[in-house]
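Work Package 4 report. The design task specified in the project plan requires that, given a folded chain encoded as structure tokens, an amino acid be chosen for each position. We show below one input record used in the internal validation round.
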């Protein structure tokens, strides 16, 4: 998490609505419990998502220019203001850091969900008596809640940085999508990265791959 904290100096966040309180019966309807492995082929390519964000910001800047508006929202490549190149790249790097876990282990019962993430801190949601309470962590305040059949985690970090994880389970129950969105008031459009995980048997070996902004695609073979 040291790298994550370093990036806080590059980007700050805007606030948004907190998830609804948990409903006690949703945990029985949706079970994330088990072992999950990143499916790189089904997940977003971070460079492609970054390119999409830049194109969207350019389109917004062009629309503003056509409307003869010179107040905010435009691109400032190389600058330090809103939508500057350092802020946009910082947003993408933050998304890369907080979503790079290759393996997940989820423990779930009627009162709580614990998501252990490889090389990252765990996500915890407790919903005793049918509702969850804000949870203080070493990195900030974390709230969680259900949005229909999807589980939401929102973390408010120092300097206003806001990170949201939205978990949704595939119809067959063997695919887990985690949509992570990073908000910053220095970038006028949030950055969302979808990571797709498939169930796996931790006793079997396999090939693991990861895709990052700096290293591209890297694969290794390992035994479990």
């Amino acid at each position: 998490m040291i790298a994550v904290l370093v990036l806080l100096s590059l980007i700050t966040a805007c606030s948004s609505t907190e998830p609804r309180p948990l409903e006690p019966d949703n945990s029985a309807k949706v079970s994330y419990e088990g072992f999950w492995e990143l499916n790189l082929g089904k997940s977003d390519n971070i460079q492609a998502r970054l390119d999409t964000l830049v194109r969207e910001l350019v389109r917004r800047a062009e629309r503003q220019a056509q409307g003869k508006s010179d107040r905010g929202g435009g691109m400032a490549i190389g600058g330090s203001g809103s939508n500057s190149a350092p802020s946009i790249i910082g947003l993408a790097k933050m998304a890369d850091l907080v979503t790079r876990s290759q393996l997940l282990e989820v423990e779930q019962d009627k009162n709580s969900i614990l998501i252990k993430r490889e090389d990252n801190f765990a996500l915890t949601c407790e919903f005793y008596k049918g509702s969850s309470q804000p949870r203080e962590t070493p990195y900030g305040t974390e709230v969680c809640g259900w949005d229909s059949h999807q589980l939401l985690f929102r973390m408010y970090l120092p300097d206003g940085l806001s990170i949201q994880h939205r978990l949704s389970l595939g119809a067959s129950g063997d695919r887990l999508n985690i949509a992570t969105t990073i908000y910053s008031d220095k970038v006028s459009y949030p950055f969302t990265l979808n990571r797709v995980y498939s169930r796996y048997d931790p006793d079997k070996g396999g090939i693991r791959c990861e895709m990052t902004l700096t290293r591209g695609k890297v694969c290794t073979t390992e035994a479990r």
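Residues 1-22, 74-80 have pLDDT under 50 and may be disordered. Validation will be extended to a larger panel in the next phase.
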